[in-house]
Amino acid sequence: MYRSDNFKQKETMSHAFYHSCLGKIVILAIIVAILLLLAMLTKPSKKTMIAETTDGILECIENNDSIKGDKIDDYMTNFAHVFTTADTTEINKDLMAGLKKYNRMEIHNHTFYRTAYIHNNVHPEGVRVAVGAYGLVLPTVTYSDLLLYIGKMHGDFNKAIIRNKAFDNHDLGRNPEIREYHYKGDSED
Fold it and tell me: For residue 114, which of 34, 49, 35 has the smallest C-alpha distance?
């Protein structure tokens, strides 16, 4: 292609293709295809997903305290769990037994990534607790996703809910005499 001004330069075909809209779309499609192929080839194995997800769950239990943050705190904590490992000597053995007894982990295989789900009585349909792609496993677990122990919902099963018991103070106050339409100010006093 020739320019119309005094500087007659001939553009190469590759230069013209790179600067066209179609060229930019084709280059973007090639980059996305390479990234998807790389994701498919570096997807973590099922064994790696189970090990890293269990480590993320143990770190979540270990870090649980009385201060509950918002979702951003949970995301940042889970992102930090990618680079650290749990100290299994600090975990309470009863919590570990409850974790294994009341929660079931499933790994789902997708084309470009894997996901881990926890199923329990609180989340029977399952809640996603980890995503694995590009060789990394990113935990997304929160403490409320886990069921670690089961207690009684009703204290004493043989006691009646409504008790017929006399009040210690027999003075219940005085009820005014309310008649029909009294609340509208149409009383016949």
Answer: 49
Whole-Å CA distances, 70 to 60, 73, 137, 140: 14, 5, 22, 13
This prediction has a pTM of 0.66
Structure confidence at residue 107 (pLDDT):
93
Is the CB of residue 116 less than 8 Å from the CB of residue 128? yes
Please answer whether residues 54 and 107 qualify as being in contact, where contact means their C-beta atoms are separated by less than 8 angstroms: no
Q: How far apart are alpha carbons 113 and 111 in whole angstroms?
A: 6
The 8-class DSSP code of residue 88 comes to T
In contact, 107 and 116? CB cutoff 8 Å: yes
Query: What is the pLDDT at residue 2?
Result: 55
The better pLDDT of the pair 61, 38 is held by 38
CA distances from 7 to 4, 11, 17, 129 (A): 8, 12, 21, 62
